[in-house]
Specification:
Blueprint (H helix, E strand, L loop, with lengths): L5 E14 L4 H9 L2 E15 L4 E5 L6 H8 L7 E6 L9 H4 L2 E5 L11 H11 L4 H15 L14 H13 L5 E5 L7 H18 L2 E5 L3 H7 L2 E6 L2 E7 H8 L2 E8 L14 E6 L2 E7 L3 H12 L3 E7 L3 H10 L8
Parallel strand pairs: 3-7, 3-8, 5-6, 6-7
Antiparallel strand pairs: 1-2, 1-4, 8-9, 10-12, 10-13, 11-12
Helix pairs in contact: 5-6
């Protein structure tokens, strides 16, 4: 087994939160006797990430994703547990480690707003001690991959959100990190810019072999980039394994969509083939048990005959699968 780039073992983070009742009396009492409760933001997660992997780190708001990334990047100390990234303990914040990793958080800027991004990149060149040749080569590659063009020479405040995110990527990757923690990198971007960022991340991983741990609420990001996902909820790990297997384990059904030539799907009785999820003029969507899906599909083709214009059989949308993971009371950890 190869040495893991990210090795996390029973990692935990507990915050003490001040509790205060409403009202003046409670405020006065709180001055003399404060009450606290423990909140387990990360409640003992264990996983490994191998060199060059792009792994999706999924969970609802408050699941503990960002807290975990902050510990892995050295911004937070854990309450308990162990972690090593590139062989380093992240919260020791050794310079040798910080030079080989990056944390990019969507909608959080590390660039100076009133000056061009190129000037901020020059500052980062000095901070990381990059040679002139290495800096030019890396900046040239990032400019090509991100289509930066004139963006580097405009004041950051004059850039659109999508343009700013592209130069943020350039700033975060100018030192060619071996590990990148990406926290909602496409949040707030329009669909076109989301696609461009996904293409960039995939190409950057292909060219450099960087290991990437990605959080996103946009499932298109995960489907496009990640073969493996880690799902956490309330600080606990629910699933760690292939994205393709997640649907099979948590959604024991297929979605069959049939389109009819005569546009009579709204009046055609198809309940005998499965559970009707939706009907539109000319199209009906069925939910069918995974085990019998091939047989039901064959029956539909045979029974509808020439009336059938098109038919497709798919796994349920990954958003629906993840939702089932979150609402399931069964905790699943892959072997």
């Amino acid at each position: 087994m190869t040495e893991a780039i990210v090795d996390v073992r029973d990692l935990r983070k507990t915050f003490k939160v001040h509790e205060r009742e409403a009202g003046l009396g409670a405020t006065i009492r709180g001055v003399f006797r404060r009450r606290f409760r423990d909140v387990n933001a990360v409640a003992g997660i264990t996983f490994r990430i191998e060199p060059g992997e792009v792994v999706g780190f999924l969970g609802p708001n408050g699941a503990g994703k960002t807290t975990a990334l902050k510990m892995l990047s050295g911004l937070l100390n854990p309450t308990a547990g162990e972690a090593r990234v590139l062989g380093y303990v992240p919260w020791h914040r050794e310079n040798a480690y910080l030079r080989r990793m990056t944390l990019l958080i969507g909608n959080r800027s590390q660039l100076q707003w009133d000056i061009p991004a190129a000037d901020s990149l020059q500052v980062l060149k000095e901070i990381y001690g990059l040679s002139a040749d290495r800096y030019r080569a890396t900046l040239g590659e990032l400019t090509e991959l991100l289509s930066l063009g004139d963006l580097l020479h405009k004041p950051v405040r004059n850039l659109s959100l999508g343009e700013r995110m592209k130069v943020e990527f350039a700033a975060g990757l100018i030192h060619s990190p071996s590990v990148a923690f990406l926290d909602e990198p496409t949040i707030g971007l329009d669909i076109s810019m989301q696609v461009r960022i996904r293409r960039f991340v995939a190409e950057y991983n292909r060219r450099t072999g960087a290991t990437i741990l990605l959080t996103s609420h946009y499932m298109d990001d995960v489907v496009a980039l990640c073969k493996r996902v880690i799902v956490i909820h309330r600080g606990r790990l629910l699933y760690d394994g292939p994205l393709a297997d997640l649907a099979e384990r948590m959604a024991p059904y297929k979605v069959i969509t049939a389109t009819l030539h005569d546009g009579a799907a709204s009046s055609t009785d198809l309940d005998a083939y499965g559970t009707v999820v939706s009907r539109e003029e000319g199209r009906v969507t069925l939910r069918v048990d995974r085990q019998v899906a091939p047989e039901r599909t064959a029956r539909l083709v045979n029974d509808l005959g020439s009336r059938l214009a098109d038919i497709s059989v798919e796994d349920p949308p990954i958003e629906e699968v993840i939702d089932r993971v979150f609402t399931s009371e069964q905790t699943m950890v892959s072997a």
